[in-house]
Amino acid sequence: MVSDVILASRRFDLVRSLRRGAIVFGLAIPLAVLPLAPLYPQAPPPSVSDPVVGPTRGSLVVAGGGDLGPEIWDRFVSLAGGEQARIVVIPTAAPDEDLPDDWKGRDGLQATGARGLVILHTRDPSEADIESFVLPLQEATGVWLPGGRPWRLVDAYLHTRVHEELYGLLNRGGVIGGTSAGASIQASFLIRGDPETNQVVYSPDYTEGFGFLERVAVDQHLLARGREADLWQVLDIHPELLGIGLDEGTALVIQGNRAEVIGKSQVLLYDASAASMRPSRLGAGTVFDLGSRELIGQAGPGFPTRGTVHGDDF
User: d(Cα 164, Cα 205) in Å, to the nearest integer?
Assistant: First the structure.
């Protein structure tokens, strides 16, 4: 296994058997961080009244779990700098038994030709505050968060130096991507955070995510696991949130308020202010504005029409 066993008392009087350690595969070579220009058309600047939902600099790739196609892996690596990308993988959402020394979770990235991958992992938030531990993040152009359970990411990294350095990466123009739990944690409001089961949508002890997407809750494995109605449970309590449901093999690429669907299935948007109270289903190539909640069009040439995305299929 990748770490030594320790016992630690964690928040909410839960005592768990945790594991501790940092593992690094490959070389973290100090290099000047390259400016990463957006590779795809941007959304129009937000109006004064539109909130900025995504990062004002950098990019997010938010994926719904399952098998991710090359179009998702390639986009993530391209946004991280292509052949010059320096990518840190943080597998902490997974249980320890899923993290052997020959862990396969980096295979999708390696298939793109990405080199210099670094794996960073701990269960101990005090270790996540150590300067030497976060050094790979300071040199990274991209970070990937694989699946598992989001509460493990909260316990290890929320409000630590790791969390701070992830924001620093975005401010340098880098990209943060994640799938399944690694997608949900990117939102400001965390769902399926209950440590006992992933069937509980709203867990009052675990509601804060990393906050790269403001006023948003993200669910995953949506259609594959029959979760289409679950986000309404959260919006009934917090109607101000935008709910984003991602099916397997599908991702959103987000820059500011611009969000593009890529992959083989659909993304569903949940808006409690919509008159129809039906989620909007967005297919691959759809581009929409998260702030105004309006359709921008389709990725690539043409399709200039804008319009609301309430309760329709695109």
Answer: 22
Tell me the three-class secondary structure of 202-247, residue by residue: CCCCCCECCCCEEEEEEECCCCCCCCCCCHHHHHHHCCCCEEEEEC
Domain boundaries, the chain: 20-29+51-308
Look at residue 282 in the predicted model and tell me its pLDDT: 95
pLDDT confidence of 304, banded at 50, 70, 90?
very low
Of 201, 192, 175, 171, nearest in space to 73 by CA: 175
- Exposure string for 208-246, b = 16+ CB within 10 A, e = fewer: ebbbbbbbbbbbbbbbebebbebbeebbeeeeebbbbbb
Secondary structure of residue 154 in the 3-state scheme: helix
- Strands of the sheet containing 187-189, edge to edge, are 187-189, 213-219, 242-246, 266-271, 280-283
Residue 63's closest CA among 258, 238, 218? 218
What value does the CA radius of gyration of the chain take, rounded to a whole number of Å?
Answer: 19
What tens digit of pLDDT does each residue of 260-277 get?
Answer: 999 999 999 999 988 778
pTM here is: 0.81
pLDDT for the residue 111: 86
CATH class of residue range 20-29+51-308: alpha beta
**SS3 breakdown of the chain: % helix, strand, coil, rounded to 5?**
20, 25, 55
C-beta separation of 193 from 206 below 8 A: yes
Query: What percent of the chain is modeled with pLDDT above 90?
Result: 64
Query: What average pLDDT does the chain have?
Result: 82
Please state, in angstroms and rounded to a whole number, the distance separating the CA atoms of residues 120 and 134: 9
Cα pseudo-dihedral 185, 188, 191, 194, rounded to 10: 70
What is residue 4's predicted lDDT score, i.e. its pLDDT?
31
